[in-house]
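Sharing a chain and its predicted structure for anyone who wants a worked example. Both blocks are below, sequence first, tokens second.
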Amino acid sequence: MAPFTRPLKKSVPTFLCFLFAAAAASNALLATHYRGRARDAESAIAKEQGRNAADRSLRVSHEDKTYVRALSERYGLAPKENILVHDVVLLAVKMNTELNRSVPAEYSTAKTPWLPPPPRTMPQRTLADMKEVAFAVDKGRIELDGEPTLYQYAISNPTSAPIPMPILHSGIRWDDAEKLVESAGFRNITDEVERAVAVWKFVAEHRIHAMPVTEGSEEHDLVKFFSCYGYGFCDDAAQAVAGLAKLSGLDARIWNLSGNVHVVPEVFAGGRWILLDADFAVFFHKPGDPSVILGVAELGRDRALFSNAVQRGKLPSFEREYAGYFLNPAGNKPRPVEARSDHRITASLAPGEKVVFSNFNWGSYFLGAYPQRVPRYFNGYFSRPLPAESFSLPAGVEIRRDGESFTIANSTTEPQAVAVWVEYPFPIVGGVFTSSVAVELEFEDRASGRKVRLKPGREIPLESAVTQVAKQPTTAFTLRIFVPAGGLLKFDAPPQLISDFQFAELPLLRLKNGGNEFQVHSPYPTTLAGLKGEVWWR
């Protein structure tokens, strides 16, 4: 049976142990080794700040360095005398991606029979031989003349002014926890027990049991949990049930069972506390009276009560191991609800920018504090040009425009950097910067302050720069282009920035043959007519 809560973190002797584990171990061993390495990665990255590149090599044995160089060759990375922290993180990401593609995702159809087939992992973000269909964003309808297997839909801003990104949805608002509750109709259910059960059912059907990315800062945010990730352990499911219940006008609390072996929510409905376990998609009722749902204290008094189960899935008996978590009252402790509901998903599409959602992924996801093979996720991307006006200039640097082309001139005696600030509502998990001239690029994660100087070129991947092994993903970052002292950088066309992101099941429009109706939310509805909608499918 899968673990119910986050296992204790274990330490591993060297930074590279999790690489060895990734190469040969089972998924369980992968998780064990990776969890210990998350803290080491963060610590090593922190120590890296402020040092010269020559001093940033990892303190590893000759044998480990030889192994890393062999991995570098395997993944097409240039061998180096100095092995930098972000190089090793990149290797971990590549190994994790390879594992994700080579090992089929494991799904328990007993626990989640309502889920559609898992998304396919494709080799890249754009696919060949795709049909193209335009749609009017403000009309709320997409017409397809065939059944799509793989598809992407895009919203682009062809105007000369920024436009708020609209939220396309199939009836459930995924950008705002309050609006999610409102659009799901929970508050309209007058019977409190029925309302609580509706919340439980929603959570059970919009998440899966898998290793969470952090200790709660990401997955205990209701909007991020349902819109960005969609997976977590029992604690995360419990927080989601309790958080949505409170937004629906019901009181709720969390229980740690048997000293935190399992975590469940209780909701106060119909004058009593009732247990609604969304992790196992189950609750239990009074013998002979299905209308009376039992609570933690009642279940802790009699193992036989666990035979009266109401399930969304098709799990076997709950009367043995599962019941044992409740039948230890001394180890069962209530605690407050920690779920956050204040976060909103908002974004602005810059002139020429588009956002693309896919019903597949290309192997890019936030590794989090416990790097793992994520069983279910989708990828999308933002694509935007970076015209001359995008950049912030230091003193002594100017931009000379000539139509769409422009030249950045540095009249000082020191190298200078021009900067562009970028912020998105989803975890950024990769991307690429392309330009007509080779540049030296620095990437800074604005939340952590982590800076990575990337290899110069005309096409610069961002995978090694975005935050991968940490407690917080990259959502806001700064790109700096360095201009040599007294030098010029001439761009024949604006550079292009593609930022890959990860998202969960809830935001995805499920498209089929024929007419596909959807709803649109925008803080400024009058701007919707200026947006362009496209679908690529096959």
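Comments welcome. The mean pLDDT is 84.
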